[in-house]
Amino acid sequence: MDGASEVDTSVTLDGFRELHAQRDRLYRAVALAVGDAALAADAIDEAMTRAYTRWERIADYASPEGWVYRVAMNVARSALRKTRREDLWDQPPETSVVDDQPDLELRSAIGRLPVKLRSVVVARYLLDWSTADAAEALGIPESTVKTRLKRALTRLAKDLEGEAG
Amino acid sequence: MNTLERRLADTLRHEAAQLPHEEATHTLIPAEQNRTAFSRPGLVAATAVVAVMILVLPVIWLGAGRRGGESNPDTSVTNPPATAVSTPPAPATSQATAPDEILGAVLDLLPDEFDPNLATPLLVMEGNPEEVATQYLETRLPYLNVGVSRVEEQDGYTLVEWAWGRFLVETELEQGHRGWLLMRRTIRGLEILAATTEGIDLSDLTIGTGNLRGVIQSNTDDFLGADVLGLDENPVTSAPNPDGFTPGSDFPWGTAGAGTPPLALDLPVAEAVIVRVNRVGGTLLSISEVILNQDSSTGDRTDDQDGPDEELVGEGEEPLAWGTAGESRWVLVGWHLSVPDKPTQACTGVRPVVDEDWCTLPDAGGPLVHAQAFAVGEGGVIVLRTQPGVAQVRIDTDLESQVVEVHGESDGYPPTAVLGTKATPVAGVLTPLGARGEELGEPIPFSVTEYVRTPAGG
Q: CB distance A103–B313 less than 8 Å?
């Protein structure tokens, strides 16, 4: 067999390993965006599964982790639409003696954001993606990402003003 | 980054750190880099392999039709020589075809005019792929111990391999056939879109000219029977030998043509027909089947591309329409929402614009239209939620006036139409119309929201 024509699966799977190393980070991002940790874990696993089975294609994407975030968001939102679930943003915040105390007002305001806005906020401020990267990941124009970020920040600011007043 | 943005980032990081640690549910990279150990279909098949070990193939003698045998088959259809279709699945078949090549291999055996995105289903029922396949195979190959040997998913379709004889279990018998059932999951259940048999090639058949015409090829000498049926399962009036046909009884095959392969068909047909081809040898040995339409468009989709962007469609959702607006692809999806103590609601939403999902209770009355306009990229999509009595909607804008036909009320879909817009301005009024074009209700203004237009030259 001509060795040159063989697929180097070790290289291929090394690439997937790098993506899979991001699983926990992406899981936490999806959980905050959709407000459900268990659902987010299932969604990330589903997205990772899809990425693995299509890795030869996904590997060529500029941002495989963006693709996984987007697919996981779709999977999670699909499940959310079909069932009524408790939102983690509605639950009391977790606190510990070693952590800083949570910003309760802002936490409450974030929980009131629609998922559409929250998914962009999480991509930008938790995953620390640029607006272009977030646009690529979510499959929407960068101008829409900027619009949604602006709307989200405006709503958060108004909510904080309301609570302060 | 301003103060609010810093607070936001800090709060998100704090909340993320508080989330429970969720272990991955899969071992994502097998130690031996064996993909089949990871794939769910592979696991299903592996589990089913164990199940098959207890199945025994009944001894049947089917006269002629052995692969590579002499071409003097017994073409009479006899009484049932063996037991009916068996469940659960019994996979003892080869895994020769790679999972990502199956759909292409199946489509290669079907007419070019067959479009799985738009195909009329042969059977729709609730259940898992094995159950639906078994139900179908019981009706098509009632006298054989046919089983399901493999289930795969590819590009949004479910592919189920059927098999009997030596393809299903280890046996000294040479006899056996196998093929695939192409299925699609919809909000109505699993739809069987086509059945194929390994070695039987229907790709030459065409229906576009008003005649069903073409040559059916086979890679064995087995006798072929071809039926061309209306959707009521009766032979089309132009079938050469419809006399004495009683579906399911004394002459259930070969009404449109019968003989050793290749088998040529040429008969005038109208509208949709079922093309059903069997190998025959003492009984019906295999099944290839598809519905062909003179006009393959189902009318309730505004497709302007080959298929929906699969990443925009969630599990359990059905893509009802899709297209491109501006430079962005969009998909209208439908799903069912179960709410405790309330009727199931039919819902639709547009991806990637995801917040404006609509759900309606069944049997809502009145000739009303609700419109929602979305921006997708630099184009827009208008979704029309209509109610019974509305057959069309007139769309008037400053630039154009057009009528969009409303589809879907008769087959259980939410009565929804979609107009993909590529022009500006995307604003105007909608007027619901009855079947004769009469106006129903009041015109409704609409405009695309969040519309972002790139100025010419800028």
A: no
